[in-house]
């Protein structure tokens, strides 16, 4: 059973930085992708970034390219989301999620929420202007 636990959320002023962590257990790194999503009340959950933990390939939403970086620590089975130059519109609950990704094939549909099997509990990020 895969378990995902997010941490690192908080409140920050615009222009600041935060690093989110997603600790994975029961997780086959070579066969899965791990994505970060965010959601605000009344809106659909949107994909922010994803990493194929078997090989390190990544994808990003256009809204965060150049500001956010997804990375992994294989020894710790943890995936990070480094968020720089934060904007008020980045305010949301951030979730990590895992999906099957053999040979990185799952990256093509990384934005599709329904393709993810496991979700963390979420962590709140608030950016004030």
What does this molecule look like?
- This protein has 129 residues and is an all-beta fold.
- Helix content is 0%, strand content 50%.
- It has no helices and 11 strands.
- Strands 2, 4, 5, 6, 9, 10 and 11 form a 7-stranded mixed β-sheet that branches. Strands 1-3-8-7 form a 4-stranded antiparallel β-sheet, with no helix packed on it.
- A hairpin with a 4-residue loop joins strand 7 and strand 8.
Question: How do the helices and strands line up, and which of them pair or pack?
Answer:
Elements: E1 3-7, E2 10-13, E3 18-25, E4 32-39, E5 46-52, E6 58-60, E7 68-73, E8 78-83, E9 92-100, E10 118-119, E11 123-128
Parallel strand pairs: 2-11
Antiparallel strand pairs: 1-3, 3-8, 4-5, 4-9, 5-6, 7-8, 9-10, 9-11
Order of helices and strands: EEEEEEEEEEE
What shape does the CA trace take? globular
Biggest β-sheet description:
7 strands, mixed
Q: How many whole angstroms does the radius of gyration measure?
A: 14 Å
Number of DSSP helices?
0
* Percent helix range: under 10%
Number of strands: 11
Distance between the termini: 40 Å
Q: What is shown here, in short?
A:
It contains no helices and 11 strands. The model has no long low-confidence stretch (mean pLDDT 94). Strands 2, 4, 5, 6, 9, 10 and 11 form a 7-stranded mixed beta sheet that branches. A 4-stranded antiparallel beta sheet has the order 1-3-8-7, with no helix packed on it.
For this entry, give a set of tags.
four-stranded antiparallel β-sheet; 129 residues; seven-stranded mixed β-sheet; 11 strands; 0% helix; globular
